[in-house]
Structures are given as structure tokens and as C-alpha cells.
Amino acid sequence: MNPTRRMWAFFAPVRGTLYWSTLLSSLTFISSIGLLATSGWLISNAALRPPVLTLEVAIVAVRTFALSRGIARYFERLISHNATLASLTDIRAALYTKLEELAPARIGIFRRGDMMARLVSDVDDIQNLPLRVFIPIVSATLTSIVASVLAIVILPTAGIILAISLLIAGLLSAQAAWRSAASSEKQSAALQGELTDSMIEFFAGAADLAMLDHTQQSLSAIKATDESLTQASLSRAFAQGLGAAIITAAQGVALVAATYLGVAAVNSGNLVGVNLAVIVFIPLAAFESITAIPNAVLALARVRGSAERICEILDTQSTSSAPETTSAVIDSRVQLADVTARWPNALDTTLSNISIDVPHHTRIALVGRSGSGKSTVAAILAKFIELESGLYSLGAIDTATLSDEAVRSHVVVSAQDAHIFATSVAENLKIASPSATETIDDEVLWNALELVELDDVVRALPEGLNTVLGDRGQTLSGGQRQRLILARMLLARADVWVLDEPTEHLDAEQADRMITRINEATEHSSLVLLTHRILDTVTMSHIYVMDNGQIREAGTPTQLESAGKTYSTLLNRERQAQHKLG
């Protein structure tokens, strides 16, 4: 289905309301025509000094048309905007539902700023579909018909010329607007997303850009995008001006023709003199509704671009749609066999033919430099990305037969950059609850904080567990954030733990204590530890040394230490450094 039509389908529940709004919009313009026509008749008739009673009906009509115009406009705006905003809520709900299916792996194919623009600016643009496209075009059509019929009743030749002028003005102004700026309007949504993304990246990385002396290059790229967006705005302004010029010219032709034909009709006795002003004033008001058509065409082009970008999200396939297997028992044994995988949109494979075995209730570690593929293994275990080849099983079950949610109910991942929400300490911990209906009392929270040696820090906060943390936990130090994330993991009670750099930002003694606590907490679970700190791995059952997406060494800590290769070298360096630091 056409993206614009798909967006229009979201307005189906309120379409009846929009039809009433369209009638009210038409009534607004018709009231303007009635007001001018009646005023012209009243002024012309009053100049002849007739009895006052003959003018009473016209006087009341003028008042009625003046009041109905404002009242109809008010209720049209009120009703149409309420209906439209309700439908925008449905569009946003559909997008968030889809993002929940895509999270977190497939969301990575969209840049952060561009995603925000799609969720905010593009959805806001869709409101133009009923408000600035459907209602203006339909009401302009209805108003033109009424104005033409009224003019034909009074003076047929003038009415026919008015109808032709309105038709030509509407078609030509729409075509001119479409040709002049439709393509640039369609690109505006993409340019807005690109500009938003560039701005977010610039401010997020301002310090790094300054350090690398790349600030001006980044600003130049932002300026280039802004200039493209400005050019699109100039094209829109030109199209609006061109459309207005066409409508003004057509209105002038209709006005001159009405005046000429009206005077001729009065002289020939085919038109009552007081109706001359009426036949002249009707074109003045009739073209008011037509002026919205160029803007409606431009709005349609903008809506089309935004609709396509929204549908890109709605049409994106999630990583898996497999039904959850309920008949088989899932245990904590994890196996990766000859697995090859890459991140979405990545050009090169991240992992190549790796095999990892985590027996039931066993602790293993993955070590290696940044970029070696450790975090990709964690993403696979949580089913954040799909395999290109190979097998990933939990117990005896191939995870390809399990839904994403089923896997994540058994495998819990604590990423290196796990998010700290701008809410209370308690709420940041309670999201670890295995069930949305399960409540965690404060005593359990304090026990978890005590295990990670964070209880004294939280007790010292102004409101304890109810203290609201800053955005991304900025009110905490790096080590405190890491321990808060670890406390959240302790509350999750997972069958398989996947911890990415759990001792980062901690001093050596505290890191050793945290590893001990982790080993105790995972006594009845399986643990996959991803770390740069080799000393964290000496208590593990098995270790895999990774490099460039492949496993270079594998064995117990004792076996790898005696092998004298990469693991042994790194371990000795850390021990020497720790010894020098006392």
C-alpha cells in the first residue's frame, strides 16, 4: 500500500469527524461569500433610500454570516485538531510497538538523531494530511461549486466564467507548486533527520572533536546540511509565491469579467442594478478558499516523504519471529557451534566460525582487546543479532525455534554501557524484576546494594532509595554506576549471566571483591564474563582468548598460563603492575 494511504488509514476511526470538519470549513468560506454578497446588495439598495423595513432581512443576514463565519472556523479547528491529535497518538503507539520488537539490535540500522526526527518531526508532519491537505482541498471544491452556482443563478455568463477561473486557478496553482517544490519538500523530512542527527553527534562528541581539532570540519558538514534544508525552504517559498500569483491573476480575470458582464447586463435590463455589486463581490470571496491549494500540494509532498520514513520503520523486520517453545526444558547450558555473524548493515563479518561451550552451572570468560568480538558474542547470546551460519543452543534447544523474549527470559546481559535512567535508585533497580507483576521490597534492594558495596553511598543520598539520579546516572561516579548495574543483575535471578566489564572503573581491591561476589551469586547459574582485566578470570572454569572475531586460545586458567602465549603474557603484566602499585 502507498505510504501516504497507510498513514491515512490511521485516521479511519475519526474520519466521520473529519468530514464534519470539512463541512464546517466549507461553511466558513460560504459565509464569507454570503457576507460580501449580502453587504454589496445592502449597500447598493441603501443608496436608493428604500423603506427601512425592506433592508431588515439583509441586515440580519449580514450579522448571521459574520457570526457564522467565526463560529464555524472555531469549531472546525477544534474538532479537526482533536481528531487529528488522537490519530497521531495511534501512529506513535504503532511506532513504539514496532521499536519494541526491533530493540535493541535492529534499531541500530537507524541513526539516533534520524530516529528521533522520525518519531517527532515526521509524525508531526502526518497531521498535515487531514488538516492541510484533505480539508482544504475538499472545502475549496465545495466552496467553488456553491459560489459558481450562486453566480450562475444571478448572471449565468459571469457564473460560468467564475467557475472556469476557479477551476483553472486551482489546477494551475497545484501543478506549479508540485513541479516547483514537491521534490524538495519530499527531501525536507530526510534533511531534517540528517540535521538532527548531526547536531546530536556534534554536541555528544564536542570534547573529542575539540581534542582532535575536527570541530570546524564537523560544523562545516552541519552547515552544508542546513543550507540544503534552507534551499528546500526557498523552493517552497517560490512555489507558494507562484501559486499565489496564478490565483491572483485568475481572480483578476474573473473580477474584470464579472464587472464587464454585469454592467452590460444592467444596461440591457437583464440584471437588476442592485445585484451588480453582488456579482462583482462573489469572485472576491470565492477565491479565498483556492489560496490554500498550493500549500495543500506542498504539504502533501512533505507528508509523502515523512510517510515513507515512518513506513521504513514499520516495515523493518525484527530479528526473529519464531514462536516460543513451551514443551521442552531450557537449562543453563549454552553452546555456540561454528557461529558466523555480523551486526546489521556491517560490511564485514564480526565473528567467524567460533565455538564456545558453557556447561550447566559453569563460569567462563572471554578476553581480548577492544574490537575482538566479545560484545558481539554477548549480543548473540541475548539474541540481539541473528547468525549468518552456525548453531546457538540453550540446553538441547536450538534458539532459532525460540522467540527473542523466551531466550532473554533465561539469558540476561549487562552491557558495558547499560543505561541508568533519570529516575530514582529504587526504580533503576526494580526494572530487573523477572515479572512485571512481581514487586521487590526495599529490604531486597538494600541487600543487593550491600552485596555490591553501594549501600552506604545510597544511604548518604538526600532521599536514599528515592533519590532521583541524573540523566544516564551522571550524579554517580563511573564505579558507582557500574556497581548499580551489577546490583540490578543480582536482582534479575537469571539462568545465564552475561557480564560485560563488570569491574570497570573499580580499583584492584574492589574489583577482586566484586568478582568474588559475582562468583557467589552465580553458583547456581552459568556465567559468561567479558573483560579486559585478566585477573578477573583466574577463578573461571574456562577461558577463551579472542582476536579479530576468532578464538585464538582456549583452556583453563592454569593451562593458558603455562602455555606462555597471549593470555599468559597479559596476566603476568597485570600481576607486575599490581605488585608495583602495592
**Strand content range:** 5-15%
Helix fraction by DSSP (H/I, runs of at least 4): 55-70%
**Counted beta strands:** 10
Shape assignment: elongated
- State the major sheet: 6 strands, mixed
**How many domain modules?**
3
Average pLDDT reading: 84
Strand order of the largest sheet: 6-7-8-3-9-10
Radius of gyration equals 35 Å
Describe the protein's architecture and organization:
- With 582 residues, the chain is α/β, with parallel strands linked by helices.
- The protein folds into 3 domains: 312 residues, Up-down Bundle (ABC transporter transmembrane region fold), CATH 1.20.1560.10; 176 residues, Rossmann fold, CATH 3.40.50; 69 residues, Rossmann fold.
- Helix 1 crosses helix 10 and helix 4 runs antiparallel to helix 6.
- The model has no long low-confidence stretch (mean pLDDT 84).
Brief account:
The chain is an alpha/beta fold and 582 residues long.
